[in-house]
Amino acid sequence: MRIDQRMMVFLVFGIWVVVAAAVEDEGSPPPSPPPPSSRRPSVVNIGALLTVNSVIGRSVKPAIIAAVDDVNSNPSILEETHLNLFLHDTNCSGFIGTIEALQLMERNVVAAIGPQSSTIAHVISHVVNELHVPLLSFGATDPTLAALQYPYFLRTTQNDYYQMAAIANLIEYFEWKEVIAIFVDDDYGRNGISSLGDSLAKKRAKISYKAAFTPGASEADIGDVLTGVNLMESRVYVVHVNPDSGLRIFDIAKKLGMMTADYVWITTEWLPAVLDSSETPDPDTMGLLQGVVTLRQHTPNSDAKKRFASRWKGIKRKETSGFNSYALYAYDSVWLLAHALDAFLKTGSKITFSSDPKLQNTTGSELRLSALQTFNEGPQLLKALLSTNFTGLTGEFRFDQDKNLIHPAYDILNIGGTGLRTIGYWSNYSGLSISSPESLYGKPPNSSSSTKHLYSVIWPGETTVTPKGWVFPNNGKPLRIAVPYRHSYKEVVTKDVRSPQGVRGYSIDVFEAAVTLLPYPVPRKYILYGDGIRNPSYSNLVAAVAENKYDAAVGDVTIITNRTRIVDFTQPYMESGLVIVVPVKKSKTSPWAFLKPFTIEMWLVTGGFFLLVGFVVWILEHRLNHEFRGPPSQQIITIFWFSFSTMFFSHRENTVSTLGRLVLLLWLFVVLIINSSYTASLTSILTVQQLSSRIEGLDSLISSNEPIGVQDGSFAYNYLIQELNVAESRIRSLKDKMDYLNALHLGPKRGGVAAIVDELPYIELFMTYTKCEFKIVGREFTKSGWGFAFQRDSPLALDLSTAVLQLSENGELQRIHDKWLASSSCSSQVADVDVNSLSLSSFWGLFLICGIACFISLSIYFCRVLCQYRNFTPHEEEAHEIPEPESARRSARRTLRSTSFKDLIDFYDKKEAEIKEMLKRNRRQVNGDTVSPS
């Protein structure tokens, strides 16, 4: 319980007791409760609390009276028991309302209908909690009244929690990010707007400013509030006020020119309550409200509601009056109590009251609190109320577990011309829809935003184009734009005292070109960030924007994950990524450079195979090819000549044997590969620059222990440490291009660095500056870009993203790039690694295939020769055989064995044609000798 409310209750108690004592002295004792009957009481006292002379009260009072009459005339409910209504006017005052509520409790009522004010409901709820009297409020929509603190408070209308959720969905539907709340500064206004802020936060939107004014504020006070909000950025206004004072806001807003195009006005249900209370719309009133979007509690168009509307004039007895949704809920509140009392009495329960011991006068005080009595059966009646379920004028009337009415729903209305037009509905079940909520309850819930749809809206200024919802504030404060005051790479962005803006560079030109494409002016002021001696920390710059020290940051701000968590970036206007730059050296020319393509082992094996193949071909061709015959010295020369002439495919000797051609074919293929490899390797050695560092890419950069240079203020410093786990001791911060140059020239052994890691645009400028003295190795190992940073949910970020895309499409972005960042062709070259001599390991497979072919060819050839030799030798010996003694024959066999190898060589040296002729002759001779003895 709040302290101020508790004190107010005790104060009111005292005043009430004094009033009660005065009444008692006049001889007018308070009415006593009706005596209970053995079965049912004939009369049950109920109360009603409302402000009679108000927009809501004028509609609710006749509705409550009509409901009591209808209940009492209906024999199917409460049978012989009748409701006795005591109506008290709270006069829209918390103090008077509390006194009226205490006087009402004095009449021993079992329940009270009302109050219509959330502020009064907060105070009275403490009274009914103590006296156990249920309070059925048809108008107190404050979400905090649903707390467990008020168990005897029952809201018989919709909770503002749902109304604010509906407005948040509406804000999301039209893609607005900020709203200004205009509200009355009481429990109803404050707590309702607080609920709106919570609902907007779920939609990534927010209340940028809360414009409050006191209840009953003068026109001058309201004018001051509206003048203040009109100077702010947001143009979406949510008005949450009382019905009796709300129209004055629009009257003043129209005078201030705030009901024109680009303004958005959204009101809560108070506005339809005002408009529905008049049968005929007032043209002057409707003229103030053109383009306003408002919400009204949704009630189905049932037959019961239509019958009630047709008899309303008779009930009201005023032709110019109408009923609003509060009247419907008040009517159903009486019927809710009637149904609950009927169920309560059918259980045989009686209605009794007793004095509360806590209210007894035990100290001799003059306050007579004992006049208030506790409703003994209050808990049972409260339970019956919560479990009652019936269908009334507002539809199905039933409470959920949080004591809220089920199926909360609202009509979304647009005011245009002389009437209200329904553009859609909102319900807690299906969200925004153009279908009535009751038609969707039987279908599965659909929370997808793609299915949400509303009819078109006519906004202030009679336009159907959805307003952006914001403008630049008309308060003389331009956009505060932080610009990094760089020490290096001033082509990107730097200070310029001669420029009206005070800054210049590639990023500034892109931003200025994008701003010119916006359909509205952007007053701006560039503020340098940094001292110009060192590059500023870009992470700190982004943090300053997030902390509202600046509205935006324009420059070479890289879009990385940590930064996107605290600010919004535009579309990247420059692609970027980290690359590695290392020093290179020119290859020194040498008279023996032609030997470098192959290692010594490769040269030796290649030369050996040239001789081997020449020798094998000579063996295979010697008996068949006259070009491979002659004196021994000539044949040796032929072997050498043929071997090395195959290197240039210029051998003049033809091969005639099948095996020789096979060996030569395979060898020529090997020679082709060797020649190609030699040519490519020699070209690389003589023409390509070589790295003077062992760093060839990202992997070798991480694995080495050599120092690495990064640009001062760049995110690369933290990236290397946190993402790549590079030791912090290895990283050196470098200020400008001269530091880059000196560090790479010195190298790691003389206090420099082995490589530099920086973003590609900077490296392109550096490469141009050094005329390709250094090279990029590896690939970009991050993919990001430069963008303009704005505070979270800034609408400028989205509009400028569109403008940047437009610059890219029309070629203006490339033109600006070429103006400031034109680079030489070397910037895109990737350096080749050191060219090593080709070793035997790269070619041993070819040599193995060639060697195997030679071996197989020689094996086949020698097998063939031996077969010829075996066929030739025996016949020759038989043809020249002379009878000799045994001893002479043994001596001749020893001589034959000792001279067989020489004979074989002599046999091989003969031409193939001679051998074949001798074999034919021997076969004929053998055949002749065989025939003669016979």
UniProtKB/TrEMBL annotation:
Gene Ontology BP terms: cellular response to oxygen-containing compound; response to wounding; signal transduction
Compartments (UniProt record): Membrane
Disulfide bonds: 772-826
Annotated Pfam families: ANF_receptor, Lig_chan, Lig_chan-Glu_bd
Domain of life: Eukaryota
Membrane protein topology class: Multi-pass membrane protein
Coiled-coil ranges from the UniProt annotation: 717-744
UniProt GO molecular function: ligand-gated monoatomic ion channel activity
GO cellular component terms given for this protein: membrane
Signal peptide as annotated in the record: 1-22
InterPro entries: ANF_lig-bd_rcpt, GABAb_receptor_plant_PBP1, Glu/Gly-bd, Ionotropic_Glu_rcpt, Iontro_rcpt_C, Iontropic_Glu_rcpt_pln, Peripla_BP_I
Keyword terms of this UniProt record: Coiled coil, Disulfide bond, Glycoprotein, Ion channel, Ion transport, Ligand-gated ion channel, Membrane, Receptor, Signal, Transmembrane, Transmembrane helix, Transport
Main localization, broad class: membrane
Family (UniProt): Belongs to the glutamate-gated ion channel (TC 1.A.10.1) family.
Role of this protein: Glutamate-gated receptor that probably acts as non-selective cation channel.
Protein name: Glutamate receptor
